[in-house]
Amino acid sequence: MNDVNLDSLNIVQGRLKIVAKQLLHYWNERQKKTPLDEMTVKVLGQIHDNSEPLEYYQNTLEILKNLINALPSSQSEKIDANSCHEGFMRWNEFWKNFASKYEETLPIKVVHIAYESWVKETKGKFCQFMDLWQFCMIKGTSEACCETVGSIMNIHVGRNRYLKPDNFSKEIVLRYNLGPMHVLDNPKSSYNFVQDVYNRSKIEFVRKTDRPDKLSTKNLIKSSSVSTFEKRREEKSHFPSSFWEN
Questions:
Q1: How confident is the model at residue 123, as a pLDDT?
Q2: Are residues 79 and 176 in the same domain?
Q3: Which residue of 38, 54, 112, 176 lies most exposed, with the fewest beta carbons within 10 A?
């Protein structure tokens, strides 16, 4: 290997900087953020300076309002910035002290550990801010939720159904958000979802028998396998069953 001089090293270093900038540019292009994502990172994704109490109070309240305004209207209308403000300040101070114990690690890398410790310490005192934090930091960007939706997409694509984009999108949204089918089949409700679908294409999917004693459900129109399926669907539902029963 030939010896290299300082000029050659500088040239290589300059080229590497160019490559690094290009990679960062392409990464940012691929990571398009919604206004809510950007505000979440700005408000909850960093530790705010609390050296000046008055300025700290005003700044945290202002950015908290901006974050709430970035939420969907159905969510922002239910959240009061003043009710969440004290919790936000206490959380920021706790995170700052917690992160100081991990000087060699970026604060955002230990935020989940810090938040878990803070929730245990406060014992649910700042529940309104906790709901806001969890919605923005977990429910909106959770890797588990993304993987769940991704798996559902793969299932729908892999069945050779050749869905058009609009119908494909509808099926994904329904599959992820709808409650258990047997709960949606509520005769007391003003709108019976299952009955509506059945009226469009009348196909029976329920096994029938004349021996109720052979079924664990003791119900002639519901087999044990159907009963087990219904229980599992209730457990996996993203909303409580009571939400669909009303």
A1: 85
A2: no
A3: 54
Supply the DSSP string of 75-91, one letter for each residue: HHTT--HHHHHHHHHHH
| pTM score over 0.85 | no
51: left (phi over 0), alpha (psi -120 to 50) or beta: alpha
Q: Which residue has the tokens 């706790």?
A: 94
What is the spatial distance between Cα 214 and Cα 148, in angstroms, rounded to a whole number?
37
Q: Which amino acid is at 168?
A: F
Q: How many CB atoms lie within 10 A of CB 91?
A: 21
Distance CA 93, CA 171 (A): 44
42's tokens: 């700005």
Residues 81 and 150 placed together within one structural domain of the fold? no
Burial class (CB in 10 A: 0-12, 13-18, 19+), 9: exposed
Residue 170, phi-psi category: left (phi > 0), alpha (psi -120 to 50), beta (remainder): alpha
Q: pLDDT, tens digit, for every residue of 171-191?
A: 787 777 777 777 777 767 667
| Domain span holding position 66 | 35-141
Domain boundary among 78, 107, 141: 141
**Average pLDDT over every residue of 98-122:** 85
The domain boundary residue, chosen from 118, 141, 164: 141
Token pair for 93: 């101070």
CB 170 within 8 A of CB 110: no
Q: Are residues 127 and 195 both part of a single domain? A: no
pLDDT in tens, 122-143: 887 888 899 899 888 876 655 6
39 and 115 part of one domain: yes
Q: Which residue has the tokens 């959770």?
A: 142
